[in-house]
Automatic annotation (TrEMBL):
InterPro entries the UniProt entry points to: Glyas_Bleomycin-R_OHBP_Dase, Glyas_Fos-R_dOase_dom, VOC_core
Organism for this UniProt entry: Ilex paraguariensis
Stated name of the protein: VOC domain-containing protein
CDD domains the UniProt entry points to: VOC_like
Coiled-coil segments: none
SUPFAM superfamilies xrefs: Glyoxalase/Bleomycin resistance protein/Dihydroxybiphenyl dioxygenase (SSF54593)
Limits of the VOC domain: 7-137
């Protein structure tokens, strides 16, 4: 049985450099830093809009796992693999302007339009290799 009134509260990402990762999400998506609890490890909490949080957590130096998944099928950092790989998707109000910002910052991105022609998508990675998608309406053009 599904939980009544359930909603997404936050996504967490481990990183060896949470300050660098926080700066990326603040500059690219407009997240704001909010107060975070004092724990036995460093963390930065970011907020986007009224209720979505991103928790950036200092990676345990004993962990032997890679920083972030490149895709479900390849160990190569190619955003063309992300439509089927692990990623988080955001929506933006002006897709074309957002894509231009990525280009200006030199971020390697893969653009595509869904086969139905209604949704434009751009796939790219954050500095730790976590997959990101931004979706916009093709009607914005």
């Amino acid at each position: 049985m599904a939980a009544v009134g359930a909603y997404l509260n936050h996504v967490s990402r481990e990183s060896s450099d949470i300050k660098r990762l926080a700066k990326f999400y603040q500059e690219i998506f407009g997240f704001e830093q909010v107060e975070s609890p004092k724990l036995e490890f460093n963390l930065i909490w970011l907020k986007l809009g009224p209720s979505f949080y991103l928790h950036l957590i200092e990676r345990d130096p004993e962990t032997k796992l890679p920083e972030g998944p490149w895709s479900a099928s390849s160990a190569v950092a190619d955003p063309k693999n992300l439509p089927r790989g692990h990623h988080i998707c955001f929506s933006v109000s002006n897709f074309d302007s957002f894509v231009q910002t990525l280009k200006e910052r030199g971020i390697n991105a893969h653009e595509r339009t869904q086969p139905d022609g209604k949704t434009k998508q751009v796939f790219f990675f954050d500095p730790d290799g976590n997959g990101l998608e931004v979706a916009g309406s093709a009607a914005e053009q």
